[in-house]
């Protein structure tokens, strides 16, 4: 019986050894599977990082192009502003000249109105003076201009 119990015990040892061997095979497979997953994850992370760098570079390129476009637009707007400012200065100068001319013309108009008023006053005085014996006013060759010069001594002091 000793031999049978020895053989039973020997059988259980070989079963345990077989279980350990099977477990070791499973453990090695598990390690290989974990290593395979880790390698796959590392590859996936590398690819993700590469895509991220590409997106970042593409975004940087777009921002650089946008900055260049905005600089061009800014230069265009600055040029347009300069031209508009020059036009404004030219219009302001022209307006100043026109205001001066308008003031001069208004003064001339006022002066001419004064002359007309004197002429009207002179015509009335001439009509009244024809009955008098004033040699200057009674002179038949006197023109309206001569009458004007004679009738407004405050405007024409040399006459």
From TrEMBL:
GO terms for cellular component: nucleus. It is found in: Nucleus. Keywords: DNA-binding, Nucleus, Transcription, Transcription regulation. Residues 35-77 form the BZIP domain. SUPFAM superfamilies: Leucine zipper domain. InterPro entries: bZIP, bZIP_plant_GBF1, bZIP_sf. PANTHER family: BZIP TRANSCRIPTION FACTOR 44, OS02G0132500 PROTEIN. This is BZIP domain-containing protein. It comes from Arundo donax (Giant reed).
């Amino acid at each position: 019986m000793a031999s049978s119990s020895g053989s039973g015990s020997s059988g259980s040892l070989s079963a345990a050894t077989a279980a350990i061997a099977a477990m070791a095979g499973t453990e090695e497979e598990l390690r290989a599977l974990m290593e395979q997953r880790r390698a796959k994850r590392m590859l996936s992370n590398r690819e993700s990082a590469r895509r991220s760098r590409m997106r970042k570079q593409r975004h940087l390129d777009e921002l650089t192009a946008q900055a260049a476009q905005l600089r061009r637009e800014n230069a265009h707007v600055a040029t347009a502003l300069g031209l508009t400012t020059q036009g404004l200065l030219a219009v302001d100068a022209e307006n100043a000249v026109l205001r001066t001319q308008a003031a001069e013309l208004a003064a001339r108009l006022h002066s001419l109105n004064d002359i007309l008023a004197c002429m009207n006053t002179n015509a009335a005085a001439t009509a009244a003076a024809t009955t008098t014996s004033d040699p200057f006013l009674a002179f038949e060759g006197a023109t309206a201009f001569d009458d004007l010069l004679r009738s407004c001594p405050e405007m024409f002091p040399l006459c």
